[in-house]
Design goal:
Blueprint lengths: L1 E6 L3 H5 L9 H13 L5 E7 L15 H10 L5 E4 L12 H10 L3 E4 L7 E2 L5 H34 L12 E3 L8 E3 L1 H16 L4 H10 L12 H8 L9 E2 L2 E3 L5 E3 L9 E2 L11 H13 L11 H5 L8 E3 L6 E10 L6 E10 H6 L9 E3 H17 L3 H49 L8 H45 L6 H4 L2 H8 L3 E6 L3 E8 L1 H5 L7 E8 L2
Parallel strand pairs: 1-2, 1-3, 3-4, 12-16
Antiparallel strand pairs: 4-5, 6-7, 8-11, 9-10, 13-14, 14-15, 16-17, 17-18
This protein binds zinc ion.
Keywords: Coiled coil
Pfam family, one: Recombinase
Protein name: Recombinase family protein
Length: about 550
Amino acid sequence: MRCAALYRVSTARQVTRDTETDETLPVQREAIRAFVRAHRDWSLVAEYSEEGVSAYRHASAERDVLQDVLSAANRREFDLLLVFKADRLSRQAFEYPVILAQLHRVGVTVMSVADVPGGKTLEVEGQFEKLIRFIEGWQAETESYNTSIRVSAAMEQMARQGRWTGGTPPYGYRLAQGTEGFPLAVDAEEAAVIRQMFQWYLHDGIGTVTIAQRLNDLGYRGRKGGQWADFRVRRVMKNPILAGRLAYGRKRRNGSGNHVLRGRDEWDQLILGPFNPSLVIIPPDQWQAAMDKMAAYGHGTNTGPRYSRADQGTLLLTGFAKCADCGGAMVATHGYYWVRRKAGDYKVPRVMYGCLTKITKGPTACPGQRTFAQKKVEDAVIPAILRTLGNIDQAAVVAEARRIAEQSLFHRRTRATQLAKHIAEAERIYAGWLARLDQFFAHPEQSLYSESVLAAKVRESEERLQSLRAQQTDWEQTQQTAAAQLADLERFLTNTANWWRQFLEAPRPRQKALLKHVLDRVVLGRDGYEIYYRLDLSQLVGAKTLAPIAWQEAATWR
Ligand SMILES: [Zn+2]
């Protein structure tokens, strides 16, 4: 057996800077060499070692030793690849199934020597299913997005005419009675509450949490008699109708199919009706000022706490970005940069990622850097994410999806053939017992069976036949569904070459929606950043038992 060894330090350890580990390259080398010596007829023909590992790596400067391994495997230079532990095979969990499949395809087996005593063969089965489910989720996201676009298009006509689409009027308004034309009118009582909210928010600097408390304390209730909550206050305040513009398509479906309110960053997807002065409760400039302030604090109105900022934030990475020093959220905030001119220096405003702890509790509350320029962050992080997605071997994924589809259909067909055989046999047995029963009635004295035995056998064989036929009907239905699903998936994979490139071409709100399937968080520090990937398959496929695939990478700022 010709063996090759791959020595590398795990990414997790790099990031936690856990260098006091017994899994350094020399330790790995010793373990794998000993493992080879322990097997007769095994020889170590090549050793691949990762050099110059540091806590932060320049992703672009990286020349992955894995590429050398794959090339050598393609040239059939070894039969068995030995790694210290399974997580050393690939830097990114995303790559893991692809690499494993590539090696398997050229006949190379992969073993980890330290995961379990005696070593463990790494199985390719099951790995691709994880990836496929992720792609299915990506595909589902595309479809729901397209649906929401179509709905919006249908509403556009009504919006142009400023027509009310019907349904419950927004808070602050009631259906006008006996008026011609536009059926909404300002509700004086609710409008007063809204004006109070804006007064507190803009002039007294009070946040929506406190506003909700104050309203409750003063005895105000929502329209249905419920208590005010901060998100309800924000939902009311965020409606452009307050500034005289009726908004269409404020809600969209999220990944789980629930309706969520579109955030400020998605307002390019809203359709606003013409300005209608009779609807104004808050003057447009004041309303806009409140919205800017709200965006600066990154307030989301989404239902899910986990991704509320990710869904609603202004910047691409709000909701994902975290401060390396305090762990707090990095939200969109306004900063300046200085332009120096002879006539005098002046400040130019720009949007930044800012540590929420510092913004809300003051500069001493967190030892980290207060703000990071949007451009610096996104120019570094987004290409890194794309590189990771780009590392996926598209052809390998499609080939593997096809293989799985065929295998799965084959199993199904085999099962269907088996069922058909069982049914034919059950029919024969049933017919046999019926014939014996006939015989019994014709010549009772010649029968080997009593009447009661025959009756029981006839009933028993009839029940078995019925049960098998029910199974067959069931099976045919699930098979049709499965075949349709697999066909969908294959069509998607074939037609959408480089499906991840959708990300590049997508408008920003959609990019954020896609990132949610890949990103857990991006940690921003003085020296560099860490990207934590997390494919939460359970959410995508509705199977709670699926563990998310997680991995991370780190790099220094350029
Ligand atoms: Zn901080």
